[in-house]
Amino acid sequence: MNPRDSSLSPSPSDRRLSALARHLISPSEAGSRGGADVISRSLASSYSLAGGDSVFSHVSRAPEDPILGVTVAFNKDPSPVKLNLGVGAYRTEEGKPLVLNVVRWAEQQLINDRTRVKEYLPIVGLAEFNKLSAKLIFGADSPAILENRVTTVQCLSGTGSLRVGGEFLARHYHQHTIYIPKPTWGNHPKVFTLAGLSVKYYRYYDPATRGLDFQGLLEDLGSAPLGAVVLLHACAHNPTGVDPTLQQWEQIRQLMRSRKLLPFFDSAYQGFASGSLDADAQSIRSFVADGGECLVAQSYAKNMGLYGERVGALSVVCRTADVAGRVESQLKLVIRPMYSNPPIHGASIVAAILRDREMYNEWTIELKAMADRIISMRHQLFDALRGRGTPGDWSHIIKQIGMFTFTGLNSQQVAFMTKEYHIYMTSDGRISMAGLSSRTVPHLVDAIHAAVARAV
Ligand code: PLA
């Protein structure tokens, strides 16, 4: 019997409604019209219509997100050996999430400061955070900053910055096509399509060489319509871990400027690729140095470990200070009806760290330690696969850059590793090196070895 079928047995809510109706109706009305029963029947039937036959009954179940859904599946697995290499979230050698010491220090400072209040921030966020974020990404001596040609607005981490930038372009830029690399972070096409842009791909990765398809990239950008927007990963390309060299960046810059293509940088891993904040911003700085315009989305999720604080920034570098001011006024019109104004806590932590020399130094040390641990995991995994004699050339593991290794394992092999070894990763074969530790390398190697042997 369907327990929700109120025609067979009244539910507790139906009984409560009937009792309410009996209580409300006067005895005389009850006598003349059959009263309480009529009303209670009608209340109950309208209730069962609402409950049993939902106005949302046509809504189908959506699939889980391809990246965040990996964690959902991982959490349901009771196995003690399970390993989550899906989402790009840093873990310690012990497999634990990490709050940086410098973040705890800044938070303590914020708590101790009794003058701090919880008023709304302005629509564009915390002014000091915006200024310091621009300096961090463009460099303190950036001519664009000195000439006041940059507008920076605090947004909801990297994703929110991309979305606000996308919506601004859809409203105010003459070209509505954005070219994104193939492959790219899975959320990019969704963010930009919903922002109102039309998404096209440019060639980026060559599975045969497990490296950059530089020729394909140049051809595709060379034939993109004049003025199109181009999304570029500033460093540590997700998911491939393949970045252009500085020379290749220079060629990309020249080509893009000659075709008036508008660069939109996604900087989600500044400091995570090389361990140096300046080196990882080099691609962006070379585009700003030529005096041209660009957009940059910055995230503090990974490099400060502020994942859940949702703190990031969108900068638009313009030709003149006057244009930058007008652009900012329009960004406010995008933000205000979207989420009104951004949250205060994460931005205050970032501002505290960036403003104080001692804290800043401490941050760079902790950041370098995270980047170094990831690089060391690459070497451990590579050595272990070689030592084990696992068929294949695994040198890409040590050549790739940043948080992820694009293993080359296919979706069946990934499914096999999840089912038999409880190793969770995205179905494109990407593993988060930040989730791996010396302790878990042997288990991963067993799984990869078995998956590869099985397919041979
Ligand atoms: N851009 C790129 C290239 C990213 O990889 C990510 C996060 C973001 C933007 C957005 O980050 P933020 O909004 O949290 O600042 N990518 C993660 C997480 C780490 C995710 O998918 O949300 C990933 O596992 O790919």
From TrEMBL:
GO molecular function: L-aspartate:2-oxoglutarate aminotransferase activity; pyridoxal phosphate binding
EC numbers, comma separated: 2.6.1.1
PROSITE patterns to which the protein is assigned, alphabetical: AA_TRANSFER_CLASS_1
GO annotation terms (biological process): amino acid metabolic process
Domain Aminotransferase class I/classII large stretches: 82-448
Cofactors that this protein relies on: pyridoxal 5'-phosphate
Entry keywords, A to Z: Aminotransferase, Pyridoxal phosphate, Transferase
Listed Gene3D superfamilies: Aspartate Aminotransferase, domain 1, Type I PLP-dependent aspartate aminotransferase-like (Major domain)
Enzyme class (EC, first level): transferase
One Gene Ontology term, aspect cellular component: mitochondrion
Domain of life per record: Eukaryota
InterPro entries: Aminotransferase_I/II_large, Asp_trans, NHTrfase_class1_PyrdxlP-BS, PyrdxlP-dep_Trfase, PyrdxlP-dep_Trfase_major, PyrdxlP-dep_Trfase_small
Catalysed transformations (reactions): L-aspartate + 2-oxoglutarate = oxaloacetate + L-glutamate
Pfam annotation, one family: Aminotran_1_2
Family in the record: Belongs to the class-I pyridoxal-phosphate-dependent aminotransferase family.
Subunit structure: Homodimer.
Miscellaneous: In eukaryotes there are cytoplasmic, mitochondrial and chloroplastic isozymes.
The protein, known as: Aspartate aminotransferase
